[in-house]
Design brief:
It comes from Streptomyces katrae. Its cofactor is FAD. This protein is an alpha+beta fold. The chain contains 13 helices and 9 strands. 48% of the residues lie in helices and 15% in strands. Strands 1, 2, 3, 4, 5, 6 and 7 form a 7-stranded mixed beta sheet that branches. α5 packs antiparallel against α8 and α8 packs antiparallel against α11.
Length: 409
Amino acid sequence: MDAAFTAEQDEMRRTLREILGKRCGPDEVKTAARTDAGHDPELWQQLSRQLGLPGLAIAEEYGGVGCTPADLALACEETGRVLLPSPLLATAALAAPLIGALGTAAQRAALLPALAAGELTAALAVPGPALATALALTGENTPGDWAGGGRAGGVQARAGADGWRLYGEVAQVLDGHGAGLLLVAAHTGGFARARTLLFLVRGDAPGLVRDRQATLDETRPQGRIQLRDVQAELLGESEGHDTGEAGPLPALAATGLFAATVLAAEAVGAAGQALARTVDHVCRREQFGRPIGSFQAVKHRLADLYVQVQAARSAAYYAAWDPEQGPLALAQALEALRTTSGEAIQLHGGIGFTWEHDAHLYFKRAAADELLFGPVHRLRAHAARRAGLFAAAGPVTSDPSATPQKAAV
């Protein structure tokens, strides 16, 4: 296996870093995140036209670049460095793979070119704070409570003479407040024969009400979606999506592996940048007549952070080559980002605790990503279950402090 990056990949990273370096300083990032769109539309169009960013992993026949998941992961490492607020994750890592895997030929031809060109953004809407479960990152995504369980709550679908109709509410949807297309997970068939299916809803559909929610990480905008008898289109040709009784669940799990790989690379980029800024600060900040970075205790802390970030980067790169390792790489990357951003606040001293400083943005990204896609101990526990590590010992507890022996009791 040749693990070296190609000349094209190096050039893409260099170009993207140059563009983001000019347009995504801490003040610009905050300003973009606080707009109604939640991102800078002009920068999004530049990244779409000049680099084809949202279409990197979309096939060329649908207007994409036709690259591997590794290319999108490398790009997201650069967007993670600056905490870029953009629809990239929701559109390219969550919605586009599902449309490519489950959509009909007509649906793929109608939607994927617009997504690849950046003309259309999309969001995956699953009821409640259950995105990690829906993507099979922290547990099996069998039909159940994560999608409403067929009872009141979640989103319900009803077939009528004029097609499908959806009703219900979905909160905490990444970019759900402004995406032009929604992929909504909904129950159909009543309680006794309830099945979870995916439906396409246009952003301007009558009866669709959306608003932006307050979030811990303002660079990850989220929205609340209310569906009031909204007309929708089934994603795929039949209720089984031509994938058997499991419906869209295998495709959701496969998308989860891909998204975990992208998120791991993004978290590594953020952790690396937080560490670099901290090193720069301790080299310039003086105390007792010398830079605080010259003190041995500070050197040891920074050395430990460097090792952790580099290990997470290696795991993320390996996952880009083998997406099956995505959840474990994501766990390691999120842990590295949380530790590095926390130490960045400490080592910046009093200024690091202020809202004006950008250190807290990295810490909030670490905490928010764990809430959305983790937490870390559940990512690892589910990966262990899938690998059969504790098959003989019994079920694995979600308690991070429990040992395998305690888990079996």
